[in-house]
Write a structure and sequence with these properties.
The chain is of the alpha+beta class. Among the domains are: 128 residues, no CATH class; 90 residues, no CATH class; 130 residues, no CATH class. Helices cover 59% and strands 6% of the residues. It is built from 34 helices and ten strands.
Length: 762
């Protein structure tokens, strides 16, 4: 993407001045995702689920593809879905279905698959999240994806690759052949029968082709059918390629684990002459997934069991050859791939590993002979990165091609990145947060078992004794009726402060579990006293912001609490510290010098570095808000409007306080929405009943852009002022009219603030 301002289009953003808003990272999934509306992304997801569902039908039932269950040509319907997916941004023309396993998700192993097209990934969790966003009318997609994945697992499919065909008659004519071969393959193998199919109007047949291990192979069978190869010619080619694979040149290339089918398309003369099947089964089987026991054969024949020791030995040969004159580095590379000590790495150790990983991945990507090892290496690196300590992992960001971390109140570049490593780090972050949420089983009633203490100890890397001490202090903050008492908490602050490293994070999780609002609010505000005592505002802010963007596609009630606390910790002094406040006062935006400088620098770094996650979170909040405005009072379950308005308000205040590229762009985008009385947000079903709050949003945004805006924003403010009459038309009583007048008067103050700052900066 050429300009990160494009990321903010769906928030109402306008283009930024040249050079103002450089992209946080390029060619990543989130950047592509954020450009499109969430509705369009859900459309792509539904198409992918439909595609997989139909594909499963082909595998399970030959009659499905013979038209017994539909009046339409099923192969044409299948291709139609593929062509609908073709225009998707970042599409590389190949749909990949892959068994994942051990992902840290709550789904069963049988359904732990992913569907990928370009940068878009769909799994069971993604479909569940989509249903929460859209509603019950798309509930059937969950059943479809689960049913399909379970069938793939039962049949031993670890990878399925579907290439989107060209629109030519020749290409389209090959898809029915592939589908017919696949649908009939199992039965043909079981009964030792030929497969009958039609190609170019001619009825043909062939028996399943045996691979180099004398097992029926659906990919080789498709290859024979598509290229009109006789059994004799096919067998001759298999034998020749198999002999080539056993030769010294091939062995030394580091590819001894490749199959005949894979090798055929690595030989230039064969690749140019042969038509490759549009659907491939277990062609790129990840070594780790291949080792799982799947039961009976299915279209892939007998499962391939790869000996990890053999795989490691072959990898060692490749590394030795690749690093030739540097045997010491070759040893370090092998340790980087296979070491199990990532959980013990400090920053310097991680820095060294990342440098080696980047170099290794570049070597693998530039060498066609090493492609066989790529998946295995990526899996091993993913396993290692998943073990990194959460506090280190959480503060890794990738800015273009650099990996950065926040250390000792400043940014430090610790390595270079590429797309594969970027995806690994992002996945590790997601899995780390997911594991924490799954592992932590806190009791809202304050009753803890030995298992609860053990879990607390494991989750936060503290001793069981320390866990018991913290829980004891926490329980003593409640009276005999189970009500939280701020005075009791204040009394226990010195005791909590004896555990400075993890105490805030633990108490924040306790807060998330408190069911009663009457307890949450005083507990929330009491945490200020603790942070002041332990003097670690930046650490607390790190935890809160990371939690806020942990799942950017979801909105939860603690999100508002996280931002309120972050705003409070950001301020070096606030008069509300001994008060229970429900919202952050708008007057906070007048603060200039009363912000924690270290925390502010960190937040700018963090939000700009995690730009896409943060923006996606803001988009989700806006979507939920519009949904609630339209559907409140209906049978559909939506989040309360007052909560969502308060949440977005806190987010805008938070961003306006810290500033930075992303913050400025989000505020500017929101102004384009709330600064126009003709915007959708003012015209929805429930907008009239919440007009004062909507106008207050505008007031905060004007103040916010005054704090952090640029000269180009003066025009935006002038345009808003020109719409004064339109805003007056939204007001229904004198109080609202007076509010509109104050807002319009505030525009002049914001313009003056921007102009003064720009003058001083020159």
């Amino acid at each position: 993407m050429s300009d990160s301002a494009d990321i903010l289009q769906q928030l109402g953003g306008v283009s930024s001045p040249p050079g103002e808003l450089a992209p946080a990272r390029e060619s990543v999934q989130e950047a592509e995702t954020a450009v499109e509306s969430s509705e369009q992304l859900d459309h792509w997801r539904m198409l992918l689920v439909d595609l997989v569902y139909q594909l499963n039908g082909a595998f399970r039932d030959v009659h499905y593809w013979e038209g017994a269950k539909t009046d339409k040509d099923p192969s044409k319907e299948f291709v139609k879905i593929l062509h609908k997916l073709q225009p998707m941004p970042s599409s590389d023309g190949v749909v990949r279905i892959e068994f994942r396993g051990n992902s840290g998700t709550k789904v069963s192993e049988k359904t732990d698959y992913t569907i990928r097209l370009g940068d878009l990934m769909v799994d069971v969790a993604a479909v569940s999240a989509m249903i929460k966003r859209i509603g019950i009318r798309v509930k059937h997609f969950e059943g479809r994806i689960i049913k399909s994945f379970e069938a793939f697992s039962a049949q031993g499919f670890d990878t399925i690759k579907v290439r989107i065909p060209e629109a030519s008659d020749e290409s389209l004519g090959k898809m029915p052949v592939c589908m017919r071969i696949i649908s009939c393959f199992n039965k043909a193998v079981e009964n030792d029968d030929p497969i009958e199919y039609v190609k170019n109007g001619q009825s043909l047949s062939l028996k399943p082709v045996l691979n180099e291990s004398h097992q029926p192979d659906p990919n080789l069978t498709q290859l024979a059918a598509l290229n009109d190869l006789s059994p004799e010619n096919m067998q001759e080619m298999i034998e020749k390629v198999s002999a080539l694979m056993k030769g010294p040149n091939f062995v030394s290339s580091g590819q001894p684990s490749a199959t005949v089918y894979q090798t055929i398309f690595r030989i230039k003369s064969l690749r140019q002459r042969l038509t490759r099947p549009a659907i491939e089964l277990n062609c790129d089987r990840p070594p780790q997934a291949a080792r799982r026991q799947t039961g009976g054969g299915g279209p892939v024949g007998a499962p391939v069991n790869l000996d990890p020791a053999v795989l490691k030995a072959n990898m060692a040969k490749f590394v030795k050859n690749a690093y030739g004159d540097h045997p010491e580095k070759a040893g370090q590379v092998m340790k980087t791939i296979y070491s199990d000590d990532y959980d013990q790495l400090d920053l310097s150790g991680l820095e060294g590993r990342l440098q080696l990983i980047t170099e290794l991945l570049s070597t693998l990507e530039s060498n066609d002979k090493s492609l066989e090892f790529m998946q295995s290496v990526l899996e091993r690196i993913q396993t290692g990165m998943d073990q990194l300590p959460p506090d280190i992992l959480d503060n890794l960001i990738i800015d273009r091609d650099e990996i950065k971390i926040w250390q000792e109140d400043e940014e430090k570049v610790i390595g270079k990145s590429n797309d594969n490593l970027l995806n690994i780090i992002d996945s590790a972050k997601d899995r780390s947060a997911a594991r924490k949420k799954m592992m932590l089983a806190l009791r809202a009633d304050g009753q803890f078992t030995d298992q609860n203490y053990e879990q607390l100890s494991k989750t936060f890397n503290i001793s069981i004794q320390e866990a018991e001490e913290i829980v004891g202090l926490y329980q003593s903050c409640f009276d005999d009726q189970g009500n939280f008492q701020r005075a009791l908490f204040e009394k226990n602050v010195p005791g909590f402060a004896d555990h400075p490293q993890r105490i805030f994070e633990i108490l924040w999780e306790f807060l998330r579990e408190i069911p009663r609002r009457s307890d949450r609010l005083p507990f929330l505000n009491s945490l200020q006293l603790l942070v002041k005592e332990i003097e670690q505002p930046t650490q607390a802010i790190k935890i809160l912001v990371s939690d806020f963007i942990f799942d950017p596609g979801q909105v939860n009630f603690p999100d508002r609490n996280a931002l309120m606390l972050a705003i409070q910790f950001l301020r070096s002094y606030n008069k509300e510290i001994h008060m229970d406040i429900e919202i952050t006062p708008e007057e906070v935006l007048m603060v200039k010098k009363g912000l924690e400088p270290g925390a502010t620098r960190y937040l700018i770094w963090k939000i700009d570095g995690e730009q896409n996650r943060f923006v996606e979170k803001m988009v989700t909040i806006r979507k939920k808000l519009i949904q609630s405005f339209e559907q409140e009072g209906s049978d559909l379950k939506v989040l309360p409007i007052r909560f969502l308005l308060a949440l977005e308000r806190e987010a805008h205040i938070f961003l306006a306080l810290i500033g930075g590229k992303t913050a400025t762009a989000v505020i500017r985008g929101a102004l384009n929405v709330y600064g126009n009385p003709a915007s959708q947000i003012f015209l929805l079903k429930e907008s009239f009943n919440h007009m004062p709050a909507l106008l207050q949003h505008l007031s905060i945004l004007i103040r916010g852009i005054g704090r952090i805006g640029y000269e180009s924003d003066l025009t935006l403010l002038d345009d808003i002022k020109k719409r004064r009459r339109g805003f007056m038309g939204l007001a229904e009583d004198p109080r609202q009219m007076a509010l509109v007048k104050r807002i319009m008067d505030g525009i002049d103050s914001a313009k003056h603030e921007i102009s003064s700052r720009m003058t001083n900066d020159k």
